[in-house]
Every structure is written in C-alpha cells, then in structure tokens.
Amino acid sequence: MKLDQGLVDYLAQYITPHKRVAIERVLSQRTRFFTVVLEDIFKPHNASAVLRTCDCFGIQDIHLIEKTDTYKINPFVTRGASQWVDLHKYFSPDGSAVDQCFNALHQKGYKIYGTSPVADSQSIHELPLFPDQKIALVFGNEHEGISEEVKSKVDGLVHIPMRGFTESFNISVSASIFLFELIKRASAFESPNFHISEEERGELRLRWYKDIVPHADIHEKHFRKQTQNAEN
User: For residue range 180-216, what is the model confidence (pLDDT) as tens digits?
Assistant: First the structure.
C-alpha cells in the first residue's frame, strides 16, 4: 500500500516541532535486525519491562508466544513504550504457537536463538554475527526459562556468563544485557540492513502521527474531504 505523504504532512501541523524532531531521531535508529521473543511470560510487570527495554534499544518488533498465559500491558512499567513498538502475538488452541512464531521468523530471515545457561549454550560474547543475518532471541518465563519445545526447535542456544552462584538475571535485565552486547557488536560491521528502510520509516511515522494527534480520525476525514473536493 502506497504511503499517503499528503496525510503525513497534514497531520504534522498538529505536532510540535520538538516532537517531530524526536520522532525522526528515533526512526533513524529503529531496527528489525534483532528482535525479541517472549515465551509464556506470566508476570505482566516483567514482560512490560522488556517492552520498555526494547524501545530503549530501538527494537521495533516483540513476539509473544502465549501458551497458558496471556500478556497484558502494564502501563506503569512500559511508560508508553508499547505505543512505539509492534507486538506480534501467537496463540493456538492446538498448541502450535511456537511453530507459528518460529515459521514467521524464519520466513523473514531470522536465525533464532534460545536464551539458556545449559552446558551446550554459547556465550553471548562468542555468538557469530554477520551483516546479512538477522537474529531473534527467545526468553522464557520467570521460573522455568524457555521450554524443552523451544530448545528443540531453535537454531542455537546462548547465555550470559555468570560469576556468582545465581544462574540467571531477571528477564528484563537479561534482555538489556543481550541487546546491549549484540547492538554494540553489530555496530562494528555497519550492516546496510541494520536500520529499517525508508518505506518502513514512512509507515511508522504515519502510524505514530495518528497515535499522538488528538482526534486524528476526524482530522483524516477532513483531509480526505479536502482532497476529494480539490480533485473535483
């Protein structure tokens, strides 16, 4: 679908220059090169904290596998982050949510890694990164980590090296460490595919404008009417 630049320009007049500059700065750093998958996270506080982390690191997409627990946004934790990222939910009564999610990611060119401290897992510092290879990280729930099903279906396992007795961080802390390390390393090879395309920026810009302009639907109807009258 072709972007309606006229509508973008029309809505822009209702957004302060400061806000438009902030939106352009964020859009220029948005990425789908890395993405995050959450499997059956049953504590909304933790899942919402991961959303906030992803937004802070410029991650546009978060994938939610819902087996027994349905994720609900906690606005006090996300602090508005859910407005700026895309949530993709996978639920199936027949239990194929993992397959649905992984198939969708593989079709988009992602290599999928489960986060787990098991013996055959790679250190995040040693995980191979390539300019043309997108990566999805799967995080499991707060008590059991990723499921055996996920472990059997991912392309590999990765962990954060620990120096204490505890085997894992809080999920939002883990996501922060993983994403910081991956983005830092990815910046070294300057992949041309790291940031979202200009077309994707345009789509997000329009959507965000519609989200933040009060009564955007009414403004859009007025714009459409003006455009139609001008054409007649």
Answer: 999 999 988 878 889 999 999 999 999 999 999 999 9
pLDDT of the residue at 77: 43
3-state secondary structure the chain: CCCCHHHHHHHHCCCCHHHHHHHHHHHCCCECCEEEEEECCCCHHHHHHHHHHHHHCCECEEEEECCCCCCCCCHHHHCCHHHCCEEEEECCCCCCHHHHHHHHHHHCCEEEEEECCCCCCEECCCCCCCCCCEEEEEECECCCECCHHHHHHCCEEEECCCCCCCCCCCHHHHHHHHHHHHHHHHCCCCCCCCECCHHHHHHHHHHHHHHHCCCHHHHHHHHHHHHHHHHC
Tell me, yes or no, if the pTM score tops 0.70: yes
**Phi and psi at residue 67, in whole multiples of 5°?**
-95, -65
Structure tokens at 65: 């596998």
- Residue 38 scores a pLDDT above 80: yes
Kind of pairing, strands 86-90 and 156-159? unpaired
